[in-house]
Amino acid sequence: MKRQKQLYEGKSKIIFNTDDPDLVIQYFKDDASAFNGVKKGTIVDKGVINNHISAVIYRFLESKGIPTHYVEHMSDREQLTKKLDIIMVEVVLRNVVAGSLAKRMGRPEGEVLKNPILEFYYKDDDLGDPMINEYHIREFGLATDDEVQQLKDFGFKINDLLVEYFKERGIRLVDYKLEFGRHQGKILLGDEISPDGCRLWDLKTDEKLDKDRFRFNLGKVEEKYQEVYNLICGDAKI
Ligand code: TMP
Prior knowledge:
Layout: E1 6-9, E2 13-17, E3 23-28, E4 31-34, E5 39-42, H1 46-63, E6 70-75, E7 78-82, E8 85-86, E9 89-96, H2 99-105, E10 112-122, E11 131-132, H3 134-139, H4 145-167, E12 171-178, E13 180-183, E14 186-189, E15 198-202, H5 212-215, H6 221-233
Antiparallel strand pairs: 1-2, 2-3, 3-7, 4-5, 6-7, 8-13, 9-10, 9-12, 10-11, 12-15, 13-14
The structure holds thymidine-5'-phosphate (TMP).
The site of thymidine-5'-phosphate has 13 residues, from strand 9, helix 2, strand 12 and strand 15.
């Protein structure tokens, strides 16, 4: 499968059309951004690392019955995926208090949640991805009620699977963002799952192994992305 015209360039990926109208190529860049694009930089080889990590995780999720857009790993920075009509709602899952939840609720970072929390955000950079609920989604036609139910069902099922998956590899899955899209009448998990869109802490030490190192200038950014790569991809063939 060859790259055709560029379809879209995002903050961390470029999407290319292919000869097949149902398939696109995701090209993973090293560009890093935070705080809705206010902070910009580069994380060396992040694209290679995220491409591999995401491929391994999507294959795992597929093996457990979660439908995803993933088709195949093409090269260090490219993967073939099904073309989606993206649902403009970001689904955030949380297992531990951190980030905006700590701020919004005035809770200490690191507090373990008794039950996972699922949140919706409107995918709109110009507005800074504001938090929304099911009534906003229905009113503004972002997804049907049936699709919202599927986002919740898939979100919680993915969370159960991934909490265990990361734990077995020495990582605490604190929180993360998922994106979904429509393809041939079905909802599929899209985008990527990588240290860019997840909070991942060392299970023993609680050391941060994710983009918070870049956001808050904690140093050793590349080193910690590489550590996640080793923990996730070390025993997985690509
Ligand atoms: P938050 O604490 O800033 O709301 O983010 C929760 C998690 O979701 C965190 O792991 C980062 C991820 N996230 C993104 O990657 N992109 C987004 O647009 C949002 C809203 C969250």
